[in-house]
Amino acid sequence: MKWSEVRELYPNQFVKLKVLSSYIENGQEFIEDIAVIKPVSDDLATKELLQSKGDDLVYHTANKNIVLEVRQDVGLRRFDYHESQA
């Protein structure tokens, strides 16, 4: 399904989506094809977004296009400190 179709079906509200196809250009991901999982109330949008994993996302239909900023995963370094005991 295209985003324009989703915007017509669910005007001015959040929807939870599964990304089916996208492409990356200049550090941005452009979403081309999606599947609607469910509409989401304004009150639950943040909670749903935080619980989303993988290719799921929550987006508002007031946006004309779905364009996401691509960020590099920042790894955590683990340091082992050994204290000598006297």
Automatic annotation (TrEMBL):
Superkingdom of origin organism: Bacteria
Descriptive protein name: Uncharacterized protein
Organism: Aquibacillus salsiterrae
